[in-house]
Amino acid sequence: MPSLKPKIKATARMIDGVLTRSPSYYKVRTLTQDMFSPAPPALRMARLRHLRHWTIHRAWQLFRRQYRERLDHERHRLHAGMYNACEELRVTRGPGSRDEGYLLRVAMLKLGLWKRGAVPIEYTRLQTETPPTLAWDHDWKR
């Protein structure tokens, strides 16, 4: 099996009894030494400490899973409500002689809600679960 070490060599020569090295010798030496750093030693724990670590780790994983499932359930509930509202708009006949689906099409167009040529607010900023830590940076300059 071939060696995984690089074939780059920084040469050193003896000229008149003085060891001379190329200008890039130290750079190449540093690169080759740092490229293949040894792996850290294995993590060793006593039996009870390992059991404590494993128990805390599993409890944390369980907490995270329950939190994710709670958020997922809430998002599914909100999505189902929006879907049902849109479905009701889709099957309802419009005013006057308008056909089914007119109300849904008008609601999805969102015309007349903002001043002329404006962008809907939900497209201007990424929606997040929590507010930002710094609401507005007054010192920002271009």
TrEMBL record:
<dbReference type="GO" id="GO:0005739">
    <property type="term" value="C:mitochondrion"/>
</dbReference>
<dbReference type="GO" id="GO:0032543">
    <property type="term" value="P:mitochondrial translation"/>
</dbReference>
<dbReference type="GO" id="GO:0003735">
    <property type="term" value="F:structural constituent of ribosome"/>
</dbReference>
<dbReference type="InterPro" id="IPR042831">
    <property type="entry name" value="Ribosomal_mL40_fung"/>
</dbReference>
<protein>
    <submittedName>
        <fullName>Uncharacterized protein</fullName>
    </submittedName>
</protein>
